[in-house]
Amino acid sequence: MDEASEEAGISYEELANLEKEFDDAELEIIRTHTLLNAPLYAKRSVLISRLPNFWPLVLEQAPPDIDQFIQPSDSAVLVSALKSIDVIRFEIPPAAPPGVSGSPRSVAIKFEFSPNEWFDNEVLEKKFWYRRAKDGWTGLVSEPVKIDWKKGKDLTEGLTDAAVKAWETENKEASSPNGDKLKGKAVAEKKTPAQAVLEKLAADTSQGSFFSWFGFRGRKVNAEESAEATKEDEERRAKIRKGEKVSSDADREPGEVQAEEDLEEEENDLVFPAGEELAIAISEDLFPGALKYFTQAQEQADLSDIDFEELDSDEEEDVDPSEILRGVRGDGDSDGERPNKKRKA
Question: pTM here?
């Protein structure tokens, strides 16, 4: 805590508690938006079902934090077979069953495909649970999704299969003969042969496929640990609001706070390190902004058609492409610049 804060009589715990109150407010905003937007998304789904290639065109205009993960081989699948994308916040209404209320940040992202030459799945659904660890970490965790690749067509080079196998083996190994579950670091430190295979495959894969994202799992925080950590955090915040003194990390016994290097290793997902970031980008940007990205794709297509028509009519003259663009957008009006269309090689 700095001297200025100490002189003002403000504790670190008070500031941290206020920050969490802002976070609580954000969660309520997500809940409200989800309820208000549900009928609008349903209406949008009906309308866009009549538009051919809607979602492939949306992905063509995807922002960089999504586009960077889509390889040319992935584009071939998405352009030819993707039918729809849906995002569901399954732990809150209207998706959650009556009486069930979880985190608004937990999300399921569902991709629907037409029959294709790469895999047999008609639907690939990736679920993310928002969890809290006892060391204060919060974030999204997931489970590997099985993709039924056709022979010789696995774009992930075996990564998703290995991720599923390692996950299933770990769950089996984590169960003792009497059925009690090992917890926390005990599970993370127990490496199975399937985990060793996964680590080798991940190390040998030079360029990851977008579909490797379905093998992402994130940090190993189960629902029980998250519930306990949330309860402890709520009790701690209640004490702060009452003006009671609470312990900080500096007051804990050696070994109670997990070493920073251990945390970094645990949080660095082998299969798809940016899995959480991609899930957030899809659920909070691409999906709600789909109409915007589709419109950009249409406008770019119209611009390309005009370019070709202008070039054909003036094929015997030297043509400056910038003059054509200025003619379409208006003289010198940079505000009317249309987005560049991203193409995959």
Answer: 0.80
| pLDDT tens per residue across span 178-212 | 445 555 445 555 678 999 999 999 988 867 899 99
- Asked if the peptide bond before residue 94 counts as cis, ω within 30 degrees of 0, the response is yes
Length of the chain: 345
Alpha helices in the chain (DSSP H): 3-7, 12-48, 54-60, 64-67, 72-81, 159-173, 185-189, 193-204, 223-241, 260-267, 275-281, 290-313, 321-329
> What string of DSSP letters covers 142-186?
E------BPTT--TTTTHHHHHHHHHHHHHHHTB-TTSPBP-THH
User: Which residues neighbour 296 within 8 Å (Cβ) at sequence distance 6 or greater?
Assistant: 61, 338, 339
DSSP bridge partners of 175: 181
- Token pair recorded at residue 286: 């691409």
- pLDDT per residue as tens digits for the range 117-161: 999 999 999 999 999 999 999 999 999 999 999 999 999 999 999
